[in-house]
Design brief:
The protein has 322 residues and is of the alpha/beta class. It has a single domain, classed as Alpha/Beta hydrolase fold, catalytic domain (Rossmann fold, 3-Layer(aba) Sandwich). The protein is built from 7 helices and 12 strands. Strand 1 and strand 2 form a beta hairpin.
Length: 322
């Protein structure tokens, strides 16, 4: 009983960490100050009439291995990549390791209540991570601005020009969507705890959840199951898969997926569905990294693991020569 209570408190701490009412900048200004005091710098720009912000950090001298775009999870914010909070430590440790290995980092912040579900209900603090032919994707505009203008302007002379992308959960879905949209500009990408952005729908309801600023649930377009259900994304056919983005480059980016088999929020079948379509569309699969922790499914197994850090860095470095 005591162990279960401790696990609940840790999980609750995580959701508190990532779900401050992020439309009010002051709600995570303390964590922002932590980042700024640890070498991160803040940039605020206007994209399509909306204020957007990012934190960036660079190694001393040139960027020997290029730049990584970082996308936080639903209900989170860009300080998750540099926060001193213990529950965010695996992500901040990844940032430290990346800079140590010669990568510049660009942590993007999602907007609040700009994203909606298909009925127009606001989706809270999320990236617009699902394909839609009915509305413009303002996060893709934001990411393109970072790729095309911000990174090149800040890149020191003689630095590697490679651009990588990684993100977790909502940010992992967005990583796949953006990396396929801009597959002529991305070297490789790593979705963590994520599924298929071209075959998933978001329904924002009045469900009572801990994440009040990221309401609703994701559902697979084929099975109509909530993606947290066992085998939620497993189907014999996929007639409802959307048409994938591509810039039709001569060489498409490589990818490597990271997931925990016991993830309670995004079932492993959803990761495998994304893998199937990434393979089908010609992206080079460098093999998934799946943790097989003891015990059953857990919300905690959805989180970024410190075990991911070195393998992701190694993959990005290797992919420069693939």
């Amino acid at each position: 009983m005591r162990k279960s209570f401790i696990v609940f408190i840790i999980a609750l701490s995580f959701f508190i960490c990532i779900t401050a009412k992020a439309n009010k900048e002051r709600d995570y200004s303390l964590h922002e100050k932590d980042c700024l005091s640890n070498g991160w710098k803040k940039i605020t720009i206007n994209v399509s009439g909306i204020k957007r912000q990012l934190l960036w950090k660079e190694p001393a001298g040139k960027w020997n291995n290029g730049a990584i775009i970082l996308l936080h999870g639903g209900g989170g914010n860009y300080t998750n990549w540099g926060s001193k909070l213990r529950i965010c430590e695996p992500m901040s440790k990844f940032s430290d390791l990346a800079v140590k290995n010669g990568f510049a980092l660009f942590a993007l912040d999602s907007a609040y209540n700009v994203v909606t579900d298909k009925t127009g209900k606001p989706a809270g603090k999320r990236f617009d991570c699902l394909y839609s032919e009915n509305k413009p994707n303002l996060d893709l505009y934001f990411i393109k601005e970072v790729i095309v203008n911000i990174i090149p302007k800040l890149r020191p002379a003689y630095s590697a020009e490679n651009i990588f992308m990684t993100g977790i959960s909502n940010g992992g879905f967005m990583t796949i969507l953006a990396s396929t949209k801009f597959d002529d500009k991305i070297t490789s990408f790593v979705p963590v705890s994520a599924g298929d952005p071209y075959g998933t729908s978001l329904t924002c309801t009045n469900y009572i959840t801990l994440r009040k600023n990221a309401p609703g649930f994701y559902f697979d377009n084929e099975t109509h199951k909530n993606v947290l259900k066992d085998n939620a994304c497993k189907a014999n056919k996929y007639p409802h898969e959307k048409q994938w983005y591509t810039a039709n480059p001569v060489k498409k980016p490589s990818f490597k997926q990271f997931h925990n088999a016991g993830d309670r929020l995004i079932d492993l079948s959803c990761m495998k569905k994304a893998e199937y379509f990434l393979n089908l569309h010609g992206y080079k699969n460098e093999g998934s990294y799946i943790l097989q922790d003891k015990g059953g499914k857990s919300t905690l197994k959805h989180l970024w693991s410190k075990k991911y850090n070195q393998p992701i860095i190694d993959f990005f470095i290797k992919s420069r020569s693939l």
